[in-house]
Structure prediction request, 560 residues.
Amino acid sequence: MFGKIRAFAVAHKAISTILALVIVGAGYSLYKKATTAAPPTKYVLATAAKGTLISSVSGSGQVSADNDVTVSSTVSGNITSIDVVNGQTVKKGQLLATIDSTDAAQAVTNAKLSLQNAQIAYQKAVEDASIQSASSSSSDLVKAYQSGYNAIVAAAVDLPDIFATMDDIYYTTSHSEYFSDTNVVMEAGSEAASYKAQAGAELDAAKSEYDANFQNFKNISLNSSQADVYSLLNETNTILNKLLSALSSTYSTLDYIQNHVDNVPAQLTADKTTVSSYVTKVNSDSTSVTNAIASIATAQSSGTGADLSVQQAALTVSQDQANLTSAEETLADHSIIAPFDGIVASVAVKPGDTASSGTQIATVITAQDVVDISLNEVDAAKVATSDKVSLTFDAIDGLTLTGHVSNVDLVGTVSQGVVTYNVEITLDDSDARVKPGMTANANIITDVKQDALLVPSSAVKTQGSTSYVQELSQKYDPATAAQGVASAAAPVAVPVTIGASNDSQVEITSGLNEGDQVITRTVTGSAASTSGTPSILNSLGGARTGGAAGGGAVRFTRGG
Prediction:
């Protein structure tokens, strides 16, 4: 056999030389691997230390105005002036535009004259009736007016508290957050918002009527004339009727919302009960006033013909007063005003244009911006109203604003099996560069723990329901430990109890002490194949395995 090999080698010298080189190279490589020691395992350590743990969730969404309203005309006529420009800041009640009011102003003047004549006629009728009844018994009429006075006083006692409470329900967010326009639309739909707007308009009308007669309520007394008592009785009757309608509409609105939400707020139920009691109270006051008016009419009708004249004159006064109020309201409608403090987003008309009922005049938005973002159900469960928020904007480099969570959806939205919750964030600061529609990135701070014992997240491992960290048998200089140290002894697992956490840190509530060093990363080394002389396979384009010459392949294993 050896002879055959020798004969083949002599006959094929070139091939034999190549094979010999390959065998020698392979043998040298195996020898090098066997004699090269693997690098030692190193452990990167971190020190458990007290600090502040800030937990947060993040999301992105769009900026929008907290409220925007298109202001429209309710009367017809030529627009005589536009008093604002796009981007102008306005206050509630500030004039936006004016519609020609010549005819409306004349109607007010005519109504005032008519009312003055009616009041003069009424005073004359009262004087005539007083003269004619001086010699006759008027005890029934006196009693009727006493009842009227008592009915006015009873209503005057009830009205301030009722209006104050209704004002809280409609306009105080801290009292009835569920009744904000945004929440009503979101929870019960646009129809509920329409019911609320109608009820609110009726309430405003009743309050306006009350405010106009407030001084009369203060001045009424037992010494007031019958004419004053009768006039205020009629005004009180008007106020109570308007208020009763507003309360009934409000109750129906609350009932509609209650029937269209899954989780009924406790405040809604309480407010509904309150409004129901007010309906009963106002209905009682209205009945007393109506009965007093009827008693006065009966007592007067039993007297002389002059008494009938007083009634007719009083009725004319009431009618003319109503006509004047209507004329004044129509005149006021010719001045288009801002519904709230805000910014004029757009003006849709110009002087000289003809407006009719429903013509859009301008759009006003609130100066305060909000950001709406969507969070998954896990993150949404961590968020609460008033949580602090840090916001950045894709379109504005370097700008960071603060805000707070103003609303979290009570009901999630399901899309393709994924549940998300809308979160509304109100900006604490304003910046002219931030505009509705811009993309905003929100970082919501859900928890802040002071003086917590913290370790890096990578140091904590879990096995089943047990959490643990690994320690070495001795302590090292922190700077050296952070670079990695070798240890002859194997790491020891130490069970720990964990608390809050964020993306980079975990709170340890038991199992560790401040200053303890824990393993955050293990670096293991393995010898790489090396070769001092290039193999013939390399020169022929063959593949090499292992690391670079003189080095080793390194594998990183991260804890956690």
